[in-house]
Every structure is written in structure tokens, then in C-alpha cells.
Design goal:
Blueprint lengths: L11 H18 L3 H23 L5
Helix pairs in contact: 1-2
Length: 60
């Protein structure tokens, strides 16, 4: 019986990219520190969604 080996892939790059893009987008649109923090949080949530829903499924 074959055993599938799942490679250990580091997803930190996805989270860092989403954090930076969320911060920059919120800062350009609003210019407020509060909205910038909210943009960072939303960026991280989107990254978590895409890593869990799309990226991990494509490794099969």
C-alpha cells in the first residue's frame, strides 16, 4: 500500500504578503492608523482562508 508523503511547506510567505498588502491598502485608502490595523487583520484572515481552502487542496 502506498503512503502519501505530504511535503512540509512553509506558508509564512503568504501571511507576510497578505499582512503587507492589507496594511498598504488600508493606509492608501484611509490614511488612518485604526483602519490600517483593521486592514492588516483582514489581510491575515484572507491569507488564512486561501491557505486552508485553496493552497493545501492543490498539493494532492
Amino acid at each position: 500500500m502506498k503512503q502519501h508523503h505530504t511535503p512540509d511547506i512553509d506558508y509564512t510567505y503568504f501571511y507576510i504578503l497578505a499582512l503587507v498588502c492589507g496594511i498598504l491598502t488600508a493606509w492608501v485608502i484611509s490614511g488612518s492608523v485604526l483602519w490600517t490595523i483593521l486592514g492588516a487583520i483582514l489581510g491575515l484572515l484572507f491569507a488564512a482562508f486561501f491557505v486552508n481552502a485553496l493552497v493545501k487542496d492543490s498539493e494532492v
